[in-house]
Design brief:
The protein has about 250 residues and is an alpha+beta fold. The protein contains 7 helices and 13 strands. The protein is about 25% helix and about 35% strand.
Amino acid sequence: MNMQKIDTAKTGEYMKQIFSFRSYTNYFGQQFSEGDFYLSTNNTFILAKPFENFCRLYVSSNDRDGLTGLLKNIDGINVLNIPTKYDIASWECLMSDAGYENIGTYERFYYQDFRTGGDLDGIIFAEASDIEEIYNLYSGYEGFSTYTDYLPDRVELKQIIDNDFVIINRQNDKITGVYIFSITGKKSVSRLLIDNSNTGLKLILDMFEILHSRGINYASGWVNSKNIKAKTIYELMGAKMDGLKDYTFIKK
């Protein structure tokens, strides 16, 4: 099925369509970028954002059957996320009819209190020379998936490192753990945590220390519902689940 290339000068027109079709939608303010594609009918708008080997889709529709048919006939590997606090039985049925399967469910957690008392001077911030080692560490980890985990490519990783939002554990001159996060205003978002040396708690405490020093009072992140070990660690460190879940569906 042919899709048209996004014209960012027409963002207003696209937005008007999206907000006219709200019966089925997973669009929550995603930006239109050069290189994106779209598909539009009288009752449906689909935004496709290309990644290395797949497209992530954002839809808005008032036509259940029409949306099902369009999703079924879009070529290639396509991924669609449904973030919600509510029952998704209707979405599950639609996705199944369109040939998609659920490959993961993530839960959002948050911190409002940070355990502090660490040593800011002992925190190791990643440098540009660490990019390849860090990228290989998480891109080759079987617990992560490009479809569910929004892993940064090398270009984005460099940008994040330049902003001092990547901290690491290092043992015997080898990077064993990585924590990637972001800060916007007074809030932080945890993006990725991996550690192969059983010292991951240090990375969390280091992150707390950074946030506390910068006056941040809220941090959130996502955890795989099936990763009981990670959920237990986060809750041990004071995290709470807010009820929002993100369901990832894929059609190959």
